[in-house]
Amino acid sequence: xxxxxxxxxxxxxxxxxxxxxxxxxxxxxxxxxxxxxxxxxxxxxxxxxxxxxxxxxxxxxxxxxxxxxxxxxxxxxxxxxxxxxxxxxxxxxxxxxxxxxxxxxxxxxxxxxxxxxxxxxxxxxxxxxxxxxxxxxxxxxxxxxxxxxxxxxxxxxxxxxxxxxxxxxxxxxxxxxxxxxxxxxxxxxxxxxxxxxxxxxxxxxxxxxxxxxxxxxxxxxxxxxxxxxxxxxxxxxxxxxxxxxxxxxxxxxxxxxxxxxxxxxxxxxxxxxxxxxxxxxxxxxxxxxxxxxxxxxxxxxxxxxxxxxxxxxxxxxxxxxxxxxxxxxxxxxxxxxxxxxxxxxxxxxxxxxxxxxxxxxxxxxxxxxxxxxxxxxxxxxxxxxxxxxxxxxxxxxxxxxxxxxxxxxxxxxxxxxxx
Length: 419
Known about the structure:
- The chain has helices at residues 38-48, 57-68, 82-98, 102-126, 132-152, 160-180, 209-212, 232-241, 283-308, 314-317, 328-359, 364-373, 394-402, and strands at residues 19-21, 27-29, 70-71, 78-79, 194-200, 217-222, 242-243, 248-249, 255-257, 262-264, 269-271, 276-278, 377-379, 384-386.
- The protein is mainly alpha-helical.
- The protein has a domain at 19-80.
- The protein has a two-stranded antiparallel sheet with strand order 1-2. A two-stranded antiparallel sheet has the order 3-4. Strands 5-6 form a two-stranded antiparallel sheet.
- Strand 3 (70-71) and strand 4 form a beta hairpin.
- The longest helix is centred in the last third of the chain and has 32 residues, at 328-359.
- The two termini are 46 Å apart.
- It is found in: Golgi apparatus, trans-Golgi network membrane.
């Protein structure tokens, strides 16, 4: 088997929209995605000869497949995460299968949440980052809106004002999601606390890309001993808040996210649905994203049920809608309404927990630590966790949350200068 020869990259020769630099450093083209794959050829050759596969042959073939999974872009083809593709394919397939018969609908709408929860616990246990949940959330939102436009609106039961309300709700959800993704509030290291830096020209895989902001990653080593010389009490506090990974002394209520690989101010939790942490800078926008999504989803569900089950009340139509499966279009809309109810139910539970935590001035991280260390009171079957540390009363807690200021950014600081 001949070795593949890589073209030498000329730094002055820019990439076209369909070209990219592969994992071997060679210049490749999207049109050659199925050509010249030594790893796949070797695996097939061993399979044809009934020889045992090498231990790493399949992993190398999968790595080559992932490297060639790209889409055209302005400055060169961009690599696509394979976890993004599965929701785009599986969600329409499952919903169309569920629309064929009500028994299939029950089976699919029961299996899908179970599979999603299983995948969540699988990835959460490994502390890995994945775009699956963000892709599923965005595609569910846009696909439901697409079916609403193409299947429900042509029936004539939705007026222009109702259509505009749903459209504005979808737009506001996306806008606040984008604002939430800008950053949860990263802890920035002071230049006076550093004595050496190590620069990585390629971002590390376990560091949040939003934190790096497209810049080179620098690991900054701080002088921990110099920050702990002002008394025994201050030493004990700083040692307790010292992050050995980020080399910073965390302020109160801050925490290190093992998934993002950075320290976050007033860390609440890492939300897989936005693929980012929820912290001091984006907690309010995160709640607004949930509120706009739920309002839009519930209003859209009511419009769909009024259209496909016009003779039934909205509340009863979800459980009893005669002859809805006689027409595939109506069955598909009814199935999507049920799917939206399942998603809305999960997010409504999340929003309820968030509102309760804000009312008691406790973060999700603090609530989990209090339960683990048995230092907080658990009320209403675990829905309310009162740590009794930061709570100043319902009104004062909400005023403090709504007026919570964002982290100040030094004007002469770049993300590449920080841990």
